[in-house]
């Protein structure tokens, strides 16, 4: 077993297992929810879900991408589906930030949002990065983007918001969210369908607002 910390991330998706399976195995579908736009997104999708994936229909995908033993499991749950991503490991869970674990928390919330609210729709994304106190930055994010909390954890807070574009925002910090010490923080916004235009039009305003909150502000994709 690899020298790594184990984790298990789960989300209940209001869509049948067949639809979730397609969204996890067809690259064109995966691109409508996974991650954020950048020059290497298509290569990332292919690396994770095609070249290093071993699907076993109807409900298991083994990922052989360098993080030993990662597995996606789909379990029928009434008319919906429980999606679980698990990684075994021999190290104790010390409660520290884990980039792969928090990545899957984000990805599964994006998957859920896509299938429940925007199936079949393309999307636009905006990712904002910087260094700031997580507690104050999250307070500013929640003030600007009221909506339904979809996930609230030690390092990540996700909101389904009416603007921009009935979208999903994911706020992540490398330090606990209640910390007042500066840490790397990111805000990833996703908007589908008609919301794509709204997010694109709001891009410069959002960049300016973010720059007022953090030091070393960066945008993905840049420009």
UniProtKB/TrEMBL annotation:
UniProt-listed CDD domains: SRPBCC_CalC_Aha1-like (cd07814)
Taxonomic superkingdom: Bacteria
Name of this protein: SRPBCC domain-containing protein
Organism: Bailinhaonella thermotolerans
């Amino acid at each position: 077993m690899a020298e790594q910390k184990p984790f298990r991330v789960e989300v209940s998706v209001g869509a049948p297992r067949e639809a979730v399976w397609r969204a996890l195995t067809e690259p064109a579908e995966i691109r409508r929810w996974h991650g954020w736009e950048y020059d290497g997104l298509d290569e990332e999708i292919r690396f994770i879900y095609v070249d290093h994936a071993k699907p076993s229909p109807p409900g298991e995908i083994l990922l052989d991408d360098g993080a030993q033993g990662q597995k996606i499991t789909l379990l029928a749950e009434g008319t919906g589906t429980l999606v679980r991503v698990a990684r075994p490991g021999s190290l104790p869970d010390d409660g520290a930030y884990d980039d792969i674990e928090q990545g899957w928390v984000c990805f599964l919330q994006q998957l859920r949002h896509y299938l429940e609210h925007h199936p079949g729709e393309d999307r636009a994304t905006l990712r904002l990065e910087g260094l700031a106190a997580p507690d104050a930055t999250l307070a500013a994010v929640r003030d600007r983007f009221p909506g339904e909390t979809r996930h609230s954890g030690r390092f990540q807070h996700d909101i389904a918001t009416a603007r921009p574009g009935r979208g999903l925002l994911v706020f992540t910090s490398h330090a606990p969210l209640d910390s007042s010490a500066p840490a790397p923080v990111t805000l990833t916004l996703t908007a589908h369908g008609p919301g794509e235009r709204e997010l694109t039009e709001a891009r410069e305003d959002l960049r300016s607002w973010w720059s007022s909150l953090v030091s070393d502000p960066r945008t993905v994709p840049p420009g």
